[in-house]
Amino acid sequence: MRREIVLDIETRNTFQDVGAYNPSLLKISLIGVYFYETDTFETFLEEDLPKLWPRLEKSDRIIGYNLLGFDYPCMQTYYTGDLMSLPTLDVMIEIEKRIGHRVKLDDVAKATLGVGKSGHGLMAVEYWKNGEIDKLRDYCLQDVRVTRDVYEHALKNGFVCYTDRQGAAQEVSMPIELPEPDQRTAINLSLGL
C-alpha cells in the first residue's frame, strides 16, 4: 500500500506583511493533503497541525511543489523535528534541475494536464482574512490535486510539460519511481521528551 502524501500550504499573511522574503516568518492558515493510503483529501488548520505530524513521519514520501523553498521553511516553525529529514520529492526542484530555472505550478499543470490552479496565492490570504474557510480549503485542495496529477503523470509517462517564457509547450524528461515501501522505520519527531 502506498504511503505517499501530497501536500500544499496556505498562509494567513504575505511577505509584504512581514517585511522580508522569509517563509519562516509566515503563519500557516491551512495545509491541504492527499493521502494515497486512504485515497482522501484532508485539510489541517493551524490548530490541527499536531494531528498531521505523525502522518507525515510515517509516510514513504512527501510530494509537493516548492516544498523545500516555501512549505517546509514555513512549516518548520510549528514542527519540533527536522522536516528536511523526511523523504521528500519537490516536483519544482526536479524540473529546475533539468531545465535550469524555476517554473510555476500553473505553467506545468496547464501544459501537462490541460488544467491549472484555481487562482493565485494572494487569494488564499484574502479568503483567510475574510473568514472564508471553505473557499480556502477548496483553493488549497485544487493545488494539491494538480500537484498530485502532475506527479502521477511523471510516474506513468516519465515526463512533464511546461509553458516556456515564449508561451510554447516544452517537454522535460522526469523519470520518477515509487519509493520502496517500508524502507525506513517510521520516526516520531513530534513528541516532546
Keywords summarizing the entry:
7 strands, Nucleotidyltransferase, domain 5, alpha/beta, five-stranded mixed beta sheet, 193 residues
Short description:
The protein is an alpha/beta fold and 193 residues long. The chain has seven helices and seven strands.
**What count of domains describes the coordinates?**
1
Helix-strand makeup class: alpha/beta
CATH topology: Nucleotidyltransferase, domain 5
- Global morphology: globular
Provide an overview of this structure:
With 193 residues, the chain is of the alpha/beta class. The protein has one domain: Ribonuclease H-like superfamily/Ribonuclease H (Nucleotidyltransferase, domain 5, 2-Layer Sandwich). It has helices at 15-18, 49-57, 67-76, 91-99, 105-113, 121-129, 133-157; strands at residues 4-11, 28-35, 40-45, 61-64, 88-90, 159-163, 169-173. It has a 5-stranded mixed beta sheet with strand order 3-2-1-4-5, with helices on both faces. A two-stranded antiparallel ribbon has the order 6-7.
